[in-house]
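pasting for ref
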Amino acid sequence: MGFLDALLGRSKPVRPDLDQLFGVPSAALTLEAAAGFTPTGLGSVCFAAVEGGAFGEVERQVRALLDADTPNGGVPVEASRDDYGYSWLLARHTPQELPELVNDLHAVNSELEANGFGPQLLCSLVAFRNEAGQSLALVYLYKRGTFYPFAPMPGGGERRNSPLELQVKAMLGDDLRVESDLSRWFPVWGAPGL
């Protein structure tokens, strides 16, 4: 960073740190103890799809990598596209296999990044639910290297449980690098796994 950047208040963008994902299992313990949220076993990665053979080949490699770890020929990863044109890969595990789910999400992000598609990565999320049926996602923003909670209101519709999101932010400050700019807490309506 140069002198002029410092003088004008500009800063370098945060580099993605995929290893931040490995903090999710400890955050899950905090969420369960403090708020009764437990993992659902579902997690997904969102990226802007790119047309072309190279990207298609990387997507096949990612799916083959994750499918290889699936016992009994199950389908651990499902591809979909949302209403906004973004692509999602949904990974499924049992709720007790949160570390394995996080490993899968890390592998997807790493594989896309290693093949030059890092700029297309948008976010990853891990889903939780409490006994009252409230859903919660811990969303990792790839380009910011930070997390934020996303809690859609039960019963459908596009309304957020903002008080819960702020409570979770306060709970997880010691476990995860939480995004401080609330304007970057983008809603992920209809995200696979949520």
